[in-house]
Amino acid sequence: MDQPAIEIRDLHKSFGDLEVLKGVSLTAHPGDVVAVIGGSGSGKSTMLRCINMLELPSSGEIAIQGEAYGLHPARGGGLEPIDPKQVQRIRAQLGMVFQNFNLWPHRTVLGNVIEVPIQVLGVPRDKAIARARQVLARVGLAEKEDVYPSFMSGGQQQRCAIARVLAVDPLAMLFDEPTSALDPELVGEVLSVIRDLAQEKRTMILVTHEMAFARDVASHVIYLRDGLIEEQGPPEQIFGAPQSAHLRQFISSVV
Amino acid sequence: MPDFDTVTPLPPAAKGDFSAMFRALLLPHRIVMLAIALAGLSAMVLMMNWSWLPAYLPKLGEGLLMTLYMLVGSVVMGFLLALPLALAQVSGPAPLRWLALSFCTVIRGTPLLLQLWLFYFGLGSLFAQFPEIRGTWLWPYLRQPWPYGLIALTVSFAAYQGEVMRGAFAGVPNGELEAARAFGMSRFKVFHRVWFPRAVHRALPTLAGEIILQLKSTPLVATITVTDLYAVITRVRQATLLTYEPLLFLVAVYICLSAVLILALRWLENRVPTGH
C-alpha cells in the first residue's frame, strides 16, 4: 500500500477548558475521498484545520505524505511548531477551500489563482498564468479572469477558490463545508466541480452537511460526535446500515 | 458659496459623460448662481489691486515649494512611521502596544502648534548647547527651522495615521489572512501580499481626508520662521499694506492644491473596485 497522504494519530484539541477533539485518528491514502460528517460542534472543522495547522493541536501527531509536523510544547500549554518553515512547506502542498471562500478581494480572479504559484512556489509568471487559465476553464470561469471576486455570485467565488487550490496541484485538498454559505440554487454548480475532482482520484477530506453528496462521492465516511469518531466505513455502510443510535438519528434528522 | 440645491434630482449622468454634466449645470437656478460667482470673480480681478503679484511671483513659487515639501515629506515619512505604530497596537507584545498607544494618544491630544514650538524652541536650543552636535554634518540642517517643522508635522501625521491604520489592519477579515497562511505564505508574505494592501485600500478614504487636513496644518510652520507660502503672503501683506488680495490669492492656491489631492486619491481608490 502507498504511503498515506494524510495521517492523524490520536489528535486532541482544547479551547481553554473545552475539549473539542478527544483523540481522533484518521488515515487517507492517495486517491481517497474522506467525507467527515457530524452535528455542529462535533469538531469536524477543527479536525480539518489541524491538518494544515490553522489550529494547533493540543496533543497528537499529524503527518502529510509521511512527513510529521515537528511540534513541541508551547509555553501556554498545547503544542506549537518547532520550525515555521516546515509548516509553510507542508501547507503549500495542501489546498484548502473555505466555507466563506476567503478569496483576496483586491485581486482579480486570475490574480487570485496565480498568487500562490508565483509567490509561494516560485513558478514563472507566464507559466502560472497558462496553468491558471487551464484550471479556470475546468471550473467554468474562463470568461471571468479579469473580474474582481465581489462582482461574482457565491457559487462563482467558491469555484474560483477551488481553481486557486487546483493551481498549486496539491497532494490533498481540504474542503471546509464548501457549500454551507451558498444560496441553495448555487450549491449544485460547486458540488459538480468537486464531484469531477473526486472522480479524478484526487485525495480530499471533505467536511460537509450535504449527505447525499457525501454518499455519492466519498470512498470513506467518518461520523464525528463530541470530538470522537463514533462510526466510520464505506458510504454504503454508514448511510445504509448505520450501527450507532446517534448516527441513525443524525442521518434521519438531516436527510 | 453654499449649494442650495438639495431637492432637484440630478439628471442621470454617466461617469465621464461631460455633455450630460454640462447640461446638469444649465438648470435655471444654477445659471443664476454661476453668474453670481462669475461676477464676484471678475469683480475681484478687475476692481482689486493685483499689481504686486508679478514682482512677488518668484518668492511665492519658493513658498509654494516649501509648502509642498512640508506636505509631501511629512505625509510620506509620517505614513512610514504610522505602520509600525499601527502594527504594534494590532499585534505587538504588550509593552510595545502600550508604547505605541501612549505615543498616539499624547500626540493626538495636544495642539500641533505646541508640538511645533516644543521641537523648535526646545529641541532646537538644546542642540545648540552641545558642541558635539554643532560639530557634525547635521548642524547645517539643525540650525535651520525647517527640519523642526518637518519633524513636528511628521510626528503628528504619524500619530493620526497610526490610529487610522490600526483600525484598517484590524478590519481586514481574518479569513483572507487565514487563506494566505493556509497556502504556505510566510508571515512577511501574508503582510506584503494581503494584509498591507487590503488595509491601505480600506484606509484610503480616511487617508485622503487626513492628507487634506495635513495640507491645512502646514501654515503653522510659519510660526517658527519657515518661509512657506503662508509666510510669503504675510510678508507681502506687510510690504504692500494690502489685506484681502494676498489672502484671497492664498485661498485660491490652497483650494487648487486640495482639489488636485482629492482627485488623485479618488483615482487611486477607484483603481481596485471591491464592491463593499
TrEMBL record, chain B:
<keyword id="KW-0997">Cell inner membrane</keyword>
<dbReference type="GO" id="GO:0043190">
    <property type="term" value="C:ATP-binding cassette (ABC) transporter complex"/>
</dbReference>
<keyword id="KW-1133">Transmembrane helix</keyword>
<dbReference type="GO" id="GO:0022857">
    <property type="term" value="F:transmembrane transporter activity"/>
</dbReference>
<comment type="similarity">
    <text>Belongs to the binding-protein-dependent transport system permease family. HisMQ subfamily.</text>
</comment>
<feature type="domain" description="ABC transmembrane type-1">
    <location>
        <begin position="64"/>
        <end position="266"/>
    </location>
</feature>
<dbReference type="InterPro" id="IPR035906">
    <property type="entry name" value="MetI-like_sf"/>
</dbReference>
<feature type="transmembrane region" description="Helical">
    <location>
        <begin position="98"/>
        <end position="121"/>
    </location>
</feature>
<keyword id="KW-0812">Transmembrane</keyword>
<dbReference type="Pfam" id="PF00528">
    <property type="entry name" value="BPD_transp_1"/>
</dbReference>
<keyword id="KW-0472">Membrane</keyword>
<protein>
    <submittedName>
        <fullName>ABC transporter permease</fullName>
    </submittedName>
</protein>
<feature type="transmembrane region" description="Helical">
    <location>
        <begin position="64"/>
        <end position="86"/>
    </location>
</feature>
<feature type="transmembrane region" description="Helical">
    <location>
        <begin position="247"/>
        <end position="268"/>
    </location>
</feature>
<dbReference type="InterPro" id="IPR010065">
    <property type="entry name" value="AA_ABC_transptr_permease_3TM"/>
</dbReference>
<keyword id="KW-1003">Cell membrane</keyword>
<keyword id="KW-0813">Transport</keyword>
<feature type="transmembrane region" description="Helical">
    <location>
        <begin position="31"/>
        <end position="52"/>
    </location>
</feature>
<dbReference type="InterPro" id="IPR000515">
    <property type="entry name" value="MetI-like"/>
</dbReference>
<dbReference type="InterPro" id="IPR043429">
    <property type="entry name" value="ArtM/GltK/GlnP/TcyL/YhdX-like"/>
</dbReference>
<dbReference type="GO" id="GO:0006865">
    <property type="term" value="P:amino acid transport"/>
</dbReference>
